[in-house]
Amino acid sequence: SAGHGWNRNNGFTIHQYAFSDSLSGLKGSFIQSKLYPDDKSRLWSSTYEYIIVWDKTKDQFESIKLKDNNGKLVDIGYHIFHIDKIDKSLYLRGNDQLYILDTDSRKVKKHVGQTISNSYCVWKDTIAGAPWMNREGFEIWNRTDQNWSKSYITASACSLLKGRKVTKILHFEQNIWLITDDGLILYNLQAPNKSILYKYILGERNSLIDADILDHKIIMGSDDHGLVIFDTRKRNFLPNFTKFSKRVNYVFVDKHNRLWLSNATSGVATFYPYEVMHQSLNFNRKTTWKCIKEAANFLVLLDEENGFIITKEGKRRKFNIP
């Protein structure tokens, strides 16, 4: 619960780690980040006022504040967004600055620079930052050796950014996808003005809030049309799913390919995305499904417990694994 602390479910019971509870060690007022496991199975996250790390051997959180280059404590604005287990590097924002922290020494390895973003995407030697509703455009940092340089991309470089705010950035199959408050943009890094805008409803504003990747599809939460799904290979949106017509605030795909959605007033829902995309298949919800092959009129799904389902031109066959 973002405003009350972390909850751990072992499959049978739920244990709460409440804010300012002397037993939990959790400090702060509002959770800012998801959990990131490091090479020692510790879980890193942040509240608005602290970096927090949970150690399962102690069953407690440790709450940490950074010191900047001048030795001054960074008081607020913590947000963790990436971890490199091999390099023992934690990427985070503290106030309006980006830092890389050593997960063992708890000391700053690198001060990357100033930022205005709220959401980040990391790949290779690149950090991309989405300012959300703060302003138009987005940030890109590139690393050469150990030095980071920042570029701010605006409508002067990419005309599609004019009048649009980037809420999240995804990097998938060498492509940069910008989730915006008016559609989805495939950003062309080499020729920004050749970027492409995709909208699921033409003629009106398509406000997209959050997104995650499943196979080759971008699963997005929208402001007015619930859940929307974009096929990155066919380059089109799938039909709307009226089952999820409410605003979707957050989207998350877990390691079992289950989709988790949240709405500020109605709570959390979870399901397998292929249940929605192929409702006639009668899924067993206790199993894990994976798309193996998909074409215009052909689909192969793997159920890790029951076998394969193949649909072709509206016909369905199931092959059980003994």
Folded structure, characterized:
With 322 residues, this protein is an all-beta fold. The protein is built from 1 helix and 29 strands. A 4-stranded antiparallel sheet has the order 3-4-5-6, with no helix packed on it. Strands 7-8-9-10 form a 4-stranded antiparallel sheet, with no helix packed on it. The protein has a 4-stranded antiparallel sheet with strand order 11-12-13-14, with no helix packed on it. It starts with a strand and ends with a strand.
Outline: globular
Largest sheet: 4 strands, antiparallel
Helix content: under 10%
Q: Could you give the order of the helices and strands?
A: EEEEEEEEEEEEEEEEEEEEEEEEEHEEEE
How big a fraction of the residues is strand? over 45%
Q: Please provide the count of β strands.
A: 29
End-to-end separation = 42 Å
Average pLDDT over all residues: 85
> Which sequence of strands runs across the widest sheet?
3-4-5-6
